[in-house]
Amino acid sequence: MTPTTRKIIVKASIATALSIAASLGLALTIVPMLGGVVDGNAWLMCILCPLLIAWPASAWQFRQAERLREARNEVARLHRALEVAHRELSEAHAAAVEKARRDGMTGLLNRESFLAAVREAMAEGGEGTLLFVDADHFKQINDRFGHPAGDDALRGLATAIAGAIGAGDLSGRLGGEEFAVYLPGFAGSEARPMAARILEAVRRLRIEVAADRAIALTVSIGAAVQTGGVTLNELIAEADEQLYRAKTLGRNRASFAPDVAAVA
What we know:
The chain is α+β, with helices and mostly antiparallel strands. It contains 7 helices and 7 strands.
């Protein structure tokens, strides 16, 4: 016998006993008032009728109530399970979306996501500076030490760049050994120290290419300052031009317009 069945029997028995007591009480009260006498047949009817009617009816009612309670509990359980599944699906979707925004090797924003984020930041107005960061002589690393060493160098560069900028700044990999940083709210003069921090962070990097050998890296940076009405394409063109100037001036430096005096 299940606990539920046992509970139904107990409740139905209690209800039947109360029904018998009520029936006897009514018989002993009303029948004498009407001039009648409660004899043996009356006693028997007062007991048999509740047993034959009240017990089955009570048992059925309590069983239905238990089924309703079980159904409500099951609905509540399914609702909780649905909420958990929905939350897990939302988290998985968010993770998939975030993964799609990231460069698989470095973990920085990929080109499309970075440019979209810059475009969104520019739409809010205000100042900002775009930095193009390109590794110097990177092809020599792949040619001399192999692509695994080049991959380690890219990951090291990404870590150095991301660690040098602020939490509200944007960083991404545009492709190959070229990275980019957008500094919202930074005018040209304010962005120079940030460019210097990136240069220094990269200079401190050491990429192990053998058990007893590590190589150093440097980058060149081209900066473009956001002014009123400038478009993203114009900002990119200016940053690219300044990057070329930094390379021409000897690399391992940052170039800002309108002067070409580099931040070294």
